[in-house]
Amino acid sequence: MTDDTAGPPVTATLPDSPIHTTGVDHITLIGSNEADTIAFYRDLLGMSLVLRQPNLDAPSVTHLFFDTGDGRLLSFFVNEDRSSQQSPQRPGVGAVHHLAFKLDPDRFSSVMDALERADHPYNEFDRGVFHSLYTHDHNGLVIELSVDQFDFPEEKRGVVLAKAQQLRIEDGAEYATAEHLRAALEALDIPVEPYDLPDAPTGAGVDSDTVSGDG
Q: What is the pLDDT of residue 1?
């Protein structure tokens, strides 16, 4: 088990830093071609394509911007000369391991149905603080589709997770569980409103190939 007392403090309190970010604006990835990128992110995952223009630094490359659902953007540099590569990625240091997007908990089962109809294999795991589906995009990038275990205000997420972390350490547990989340909500006087989600394995110790549905 990891010695949680040896590392930096885990807290929702803002650090004493010269800069404080206010949220995610956009994340940009190197994509393959426009058609495959739009087919996955717009036509399957349902992200609106909100901006399409030449890359300002390389006008021969197209820059696509998708709204992930809450105004935060995901963008891709694409080029028609690039073919999609569906084999699993093997990211090294500094590379993107996976992208995680939120789902409407009420549509969790219908999302699984949609992935099956689109022939996108996936795995379902109960991650303790989240309940997630893992699949991959047209370039082998692992995509996590996640819902929270409980319904609570988005702006309280950091505070709730930090409290769950504290309770996990006090409990001597290796991972945070839904019970740690429940206890955190109770301790913070936030109503405990669990979502009705199916039972699933934790997936602890499973490699990325299996997580993304290829194992």
A: 55
